[in-house]
Amino acid sequence: xxxxxxxGDMGSVSWTERVNFPAxxxxxxxxxxxxxxxxxxxxxxxxxxVDYESDGKGKYQxxxxxxxxxxxxxxxxxxxxxxxxxxxIAEKMSHPAVYLWDTDEAxxxxxxxxxxxxxxxxxxxxxxxxxxxxxVYLQVDSDKTCYVVLPDGTxxxxxxxIINDTWTGAAGAVTLLVDKTSQKVYFGDxxxxxxxxxxxxxxxxTIFNELIQVSFCTSLTSVSAPNSIYLDCEVCTSLTSVSAPNxxxxxxxxCTSLTSVSAPNxxxxxxxxxxxxxNAIASLLAELVATGKINRTLDISGGTNAPEIDWTQxxxxxxxxxxxxxxxxxxxxx
Length: 334
Hints:
Blueprint: E1 4-7, E2 15-23, H1 28-39, E3 45-48, E4 60-63, E5 70-73, E6 84-93, E7 98-101, H2 105-117, E8 118-126, E9 134-139, E10 146-149, E11 155-158, E12 162-167, E13 172-179, E14 184-186, E15 201-205, E16 211-213, E17 220-224, E18 230-232, E19 241-243, E20 249-251, E21 260-262, E22 268-270, H3 278-291, E23 297-300, H4 313-324, E24 328-331
Parallel strand pairs: 14-16, 15-17, 16-18, 17-19, 18-20, 19-21, 20-22, 22-23, 23-24
Antiparallel strand pairs: 1-7, 2-6, 3-4, 4-7, 5-6, 8-13, 8-15, 9-12, 10-11, 10-13
Helix pairs in contact: 3-4
């Protein structure tokens, strides 16, 4: 990208970094973010400084660059002005201060805008395109810009919301950049013929909060979309787990390797033709009962989804509770 990190002199000591910030609202969104920080991987924080040196090099300070910050404390008080007071810590840092910098202040400001405007989706890769050309497809709203960084570092850019290309190089990781204000993220040409499907491999994790459509992506192994309200991942035959805690609609039918689904706030779940275990079904039923919704739909029939004869009594009781609340629950009975 051309960016670099500039830093102060290392000296002969190591450094401890702490970053404190409040989560101002006791909301589902903030609770989701707090949980992701507490249970996710290391975090890197870039803070925009109010006061900085005249050449702009100290404007954006980076914390956790040597290996990431982790949770130190995160007390919760629902009655305080800040529901969570989060403290992140990184110990034995090699430099006392590190800053984001690229060429000059204006260029660095543009990089900062790119970081804050876009979600960087990592964890995906492409197979060796010299053996079989790999489809590279990404679609967002037509008035949004999107990016795909290929394994060799080449960046594909579209200002019209669609990237449709082919990778013919060596296998390697890809990064997708999605505008956070887009209403959709597609991995295929679903609005038209649906014949073009991306060949992304691996674990999809995204905090995108609108429509996510990744159906027929047969090399995805897991999907975690904590903020998505509509998730469609049907016929992802390598998919083993789906987590969509805030999704209203979840479509994951015919994912023949799918053994685990979590979608406690869904009003419609289609998971027919999957491979859900009895334990996974029990957990799903329990979380749906706990959220208390009425007159909804759950389809866990077909495929090798565990039949009711293999369920625990608690799972059977929870199914009965949902039916009593007006749910339509379709299962494998035997």
